[in-house]
Amino acid sequence: MKKLFCKKYRSRTFSFVIVLLAYALVEILTASHSMTRLITSLLVPITCYVVAAIGLNLNVGVSGELNLGQAGFMSVGGFTAVVVSGLLASTISSPAVRLVIGILAGALLAGLIGWLISIPVLKLQGDYLAIVTLAFGQIIMSILNNMYIGADSAGLHFAFVTNNIKLAEGGKMFVSGPMGTAGVKTASNFSAGTLLVIVALILVYNLMYSKEGRAIMACRDNRIAAETVGINVAGTKTLAFVMSSALAGAAGALYMLNYSSVSATKFDFNTSILILVYVVLGGLGDMTGTIIATTLLVMLPEMLRFLSSYRMLIYAIVLILIMLVSNNASLKVKMEKWKQSFKGNREGAEKNA
Amino acid sequence: MAFLSYLISGLGLGSVYAIIALGYSMVYGIAKMLNFAHGDIIMVGAFVAYFAISSFKLPVFVAILLSIAACTVLGVVIERLAYKPLREASSLSVLITAIGVSYFLQNGAMLLWGTDTKIFPTIMSGSLNMGGLSISYLTLITIATCVVIMIGLTMFINKTKTGRAMRACSEDKGAAALMGINVNKIISITFAIGSGLAAVAAILLCATYPSVYPTLGSMPGIRAFTAAVFGGIGSIPGAFLGGLLLGVIEILSKAYISAQLSDAIVFGVLIIVLLIKPTGLLGKKISEKV
Amino acid sequence: MPEQNGSLNTPVLEVRDLGIDFGGLTAVNNLNLEVKNEEIYGLIGPNGAGKTTVFNMLTKVYQPTRGTIRLCGQDMAKLNPVQASKAGIARTFQNIRLFSNLSVLDNVKVGMNNSLNYGIGASLFHTPRYTQEEKRSDEEALSILDIFGLKEEAETIAGNLPYGAQRRLEIARAMGTHPKLLLLDEPAAGMNPQETEDLMKMIRTVRDHFHISILLIEHDMRLVMGICEKITVLNYGMMLAQGTPAQIQSNPEVIKAYIGE
């Protein structure tokens, strides 16, 4: 028990506690009919963004690589899940099973695409790496927006840019180019989302506390020194990148199985940027912060609805102010002094006890 | 013949991208930050010009000057309020702040001017006919403006005292300050020039593609940012080259391959170039001392 | 863990006719030296003589233009830096390169990464194998830190350590890779006489406890003459003199190179 709350593992314990508390709170509020329809509609999206943000934090915070294309991986996972789930709709009746298979398939393909992309991307550094991830994100969106996928008794049909698929009787179109997905049998729910968040946390924390995790952080802190102690930097960074994309894929799968119709343009550059904002605001490398920041920021525009048309403006101002305040050097010094005096008082009290 | 026509269209669009990319590159080179809000300054410039011409019935020339003035002031104000306090912060923090500024400008514009698309008035028409090839005067002016700006800026950077100071700041701000250069002033001037250029780009853009709306700057912003990196971020000739090439590739791929996939193709070319030349076409290679 | 480094006859490091050109500039040329088993060897010379360049060649960060490098008889020509580390060469840097956001313990454990026997599956699911290996490496890392007087600081973030402790940690991390040869690049830089004295003791302890050979670059002559058994003097990338401390100290060419005419 002591180990759970010692300085090193405190943050990890906290994140699980927060998730479980939040879940309990939501269930209580739902049972007592205190939840607004608006908040209820945000529950699954929040879990999706949290998982995607945890993945991005692994890349940006723990591995130190700026990734501006996270939304692209979400859409890969999402579309894969929709197709797989659609194919299984007739044979598997349980939505839960279809959801799990969809998420696994989405995570797998997104991870694979992430691996392929990481080969060229990780050869670059800093801002150039960022811009290439942005480029890939846009390319993925462009491709998926022009993809037509349908299935009938003859099997799976693909078409690109022009829809020349002729479906036989009883066939179904899963993806229709710019119209996106249609007629999806939804399977996502808040419990599944919460479970996915917990699984993501377990995997990411386990990784961070392992030899691969230490290697990832070492490569971030000092690439040359890491090489010198025998760490394969490229392989290590690829691992972080692939895990990050797989998590995004899982998140995308959960998202797109939540709605009967979603267009690929939902997962554009703006969405990638949004997730990046959640990660930075929550603290690089801090998963607890990511959970809190994402939840608050997804809900904020809705909570500010009373400000009607001014709310997005306020959102922007709040964002700028948070960045200015959290980077204010003199404020940081004051916070440190306050922290030290607090610690000093406590240690003094312990000594006297 | 059609190819030449597309090529010239591409150069026209590319000129606009180049002018915008210059703003990105200069700010990156000297203030070492990616000003995500640059595209939205273009949007403001477009709106100012639109209202000047449509609502206040001012002559085009005055509208242009007004737009440049507005954008220049806006750029400098944003720098002072939002970016200057973060000069010592991580580049990621500055990036997020720039995103915040971008959201602010976009939503501010939506509030002030509505979300409906306005039509930019025609300020120039007619075209030159050269043996079957028809080039609009607008395209010619656009390309010419870009060339003039490119030459002017290069001369400014290389021949003037301020230009030298800017180059010094881009190499080492600390050393520049120790040499008596007012780094704050130089950075403000950089933003001023970049934003002023954004206004010029805005008018040229809207003259060719006359829709004006609050998220107008988003796509050109990303394209121009891509062009700046493509040509080598921090390099002025690189921004010029990157912008022109990007415009040509975009128009040619729209014409010959697919309109829907032109985005993917443009970004695909970028990736290929960066793999061959990791710091962009004209970028400098930075190696770390072991 | 003490290592046996080849037979008593094979030198731990054998450098023959080593040279490197950067474009038109020859940075190092015709370098020959041998470091024997459990020997402390010094590489000295004026600034810019090419000493760190030699280190970079030994760790394969730079690929030599000419000559051979043999580690316990093994030719290092085709190795990259990661393979060189696995072969048994470890180094510290002129400007400290720690993993500043990791704890002291984790810095050493990263050095031990290649000796930790579990894969990604074990990492993701914290299998019994993971727990076992982590426990083993924790113990070993702590015992290494103990030798460097850093055991108490195991959970401190490396970036928060005082300068001297950071230098010691860099060496401790290097020892985590179980090297046969340890390269120290100006370990006494920035140290006062007392710290340098402690460092000299520590270097000897490291050699005696881990049974490794040490090749060090240094400007502090008291340290060099005090602990090195053999010295090579480098000037303008070429060997100026080679011998025992006594021989080097009385060599007129060396005196001329350092102090001038």
Question: TL;DR?
Answer:
Chain B is 72% helix and 4% strand. With 290 residues, chain B is mainly α. Chain B has one domain: ABC transporter involved in vitamin B12 uptake, BtuC.
Structure characteristics:
heterotrimer; B: 290 residues; mainly alpha; ABC transporter involved in vitamin B12 uptake, BtuC; two-stranded antiparallel ribbon; 4 strands; C: 261 residues; Rossmann fold; six-stranded mixed β-sheet; 10 helices; 10 strands; 39% helix; globular
Describe the protein:
The complex is a heterotrimer of chains A (353), B (290) and C (261). Chain A has 353 residues and is mainly alpha-helical. Chain A has a single domain, classed as Orthogonal Bundle (ABC transporter involved in vitamin B12 uptake, BtuC). The two termini of chain A are 23 Å apart. Chain B has a single domain, classed as ABC transporter involved in vitamin B12 uptake, BtuC (Orthogonal Bundle). Helices cover 72% and strands 4% of the residues of chain B. The longest helix of chain B has 30 residues. With 261 residues, chain C is α/β, with parallel strands linked by helices. The termini of chain C are far apart. The model of chain C has no long low-confidence stretch (mean pLDDT 91). Chain C contains ten helices and ten strands. The chains are: A mainly alpha (353), B mainly alpha (290), C alpha/beta (261). The interface between A and B is large, with 43 and 41 residues.
Form type of chain A = globular
Placed side by side, the strands forming the largest sheet of chain B appear as: 1-4
DSSP E strands of chain A, number: 3
Q: Which fold name is given in CATH as the topology of chain B? A: ABC transporter involved in vitamin B12 uptake, BtuC
Count of alpha and pi helical runs of chain A: 14
Count of domains of chain A: 1
- What's the helix-strand series of chain A? HHHHHHEEEHHHHHHHH
Q: What's the overall average pLDDT of chain B, rounded?
A: 88
Rg measurement of chain A, Å: 22 Å
Give the termini separation of chain A.
23 Å
